[in-house]
């Protein structure tokens, strides 16, 4: 279709967006991910934008998230036949409309499995996913607009032109920044909560002291999984019941309180691994249980949790969403006070 054709004239309901392009993981420190086009070549405008993100200190996980959002956008532009640097607000509007109304590609509607405390899976994109895509695309075109390599007008405009807070009283609080014109409202969600009975059974299914210590620290401290896996031996302070982690956003060191049970399981795990793995102050706190011993990575920790969840059969899996760790004061030995504080833990 020719560029400039409005989404009113374009039939979005019958539009087929093929599974063209892919996100490629390179395992290269300087370029963790890149976008591959339909012909197999590299999408250089996206690679350039990812280099800017890396220069701004964004971790590889953030670059992956941004690249996936841009893959959805470029897949739409390839389907409508409009080059990325010739799109207008009509294509951007149609893209956001389609994300909200069409089903996810490659997803078959399976029988709904109701799990207590867990939202059922949906065939539609979540509002937060649509809002994230709009924000990423707007930032992508803002960068190329400044460098002169994209369209002369950002196809993802803001709500109203003008200066933010131009006539604001200096004594008043700073108002919120303007949002994107095509950005949907993200409703406030009730945090996902694992019922006490399910968590106790899940904790009892964990096969090792390391796994019990990990889950106990994760739930009682509220640290993200990536933050906890990055802890070192000197970061665990049983005397003050604190664990030191590097926060995901600010990259600053922060001490988080944890439950006494978490340090008990940690001590049992350390005694089990004594003499087998390095235990210096700057050595990793968590290691694999099989030889050759390696620092525990995110995927291995997630697989541990998935295996325990499969044994329970409850449908709970770590996802990139915020989990609510509700106060638990179970009398079971496996989970007595490991979840005694209310905190939120995120699995990135």
Describe the structure.
This protein is mainly alpha-helical and 348 residues long. It folds into 2 domains: 22-147, no CATH class; 192-346, Orthogonal Bundle (hpI Integrase, Chain A), CATH 1.10.443. The chain is built from 9 helices and 8 strands. The chain has helices at residues 44-55, 60-80, 89-101, 127-147, 196-204, 209-221, 225-229, 260-272, 298-312, and strands at residues 22-25, 33-36, 192-193, 236-237, 242-246, 253-257, 322-325, 343-346. It has a 3-stranded mixed sheet with strand order 3-7-8, covered by helices on one side. It has a 3-stranded antiparallel sheet with strand order 4-5-6, with helices on one face. Strands 1-2 form a two-stranded antiparallel sheet. Helix 1 (44-55) runs antiparallel to helix 2 (60-80). It is elongated. Mean pLDDT is 82; it is low at 319-348.
Could you report the average pLDDT, rounded to the nearest whole number? 82
Q: Which secondary-structure class do the elements indicate?
A: mainly alpha
Find the CATH superfamily of the largest domain.
Intergrase catalytic core
Overall body shape? elongated
Q: What top-tier CATH class of the largest domain fits best?
A: Mainly Alpha
Helix percentage: 25-40%
What composes the largest sheet? Answer: 3 strands, mixed
Helix and strand sequence: EEHHHHEHHHEEEHHEE
Helical region count?
9
Care to count the β-strands?
A: 8
CATH fold label of the largest domain = hpI Integrase, Chain A
Using only C-alpha atoms, the radius of gyration works out to 24 Å
Number of domains: 2
Strand arrangement, major sheet: 3-7-8
Give the amount of beta strand, in percent: 5-15%
Task: Specify the CATH architecture of the largest domain.
Answer: Orthogonal Bundle
The stretches of 5 or more residues where confidence is low (pLDDT under 50) are 319-348
In angstroms, what separates the terminal alpha carbons? 38 Å
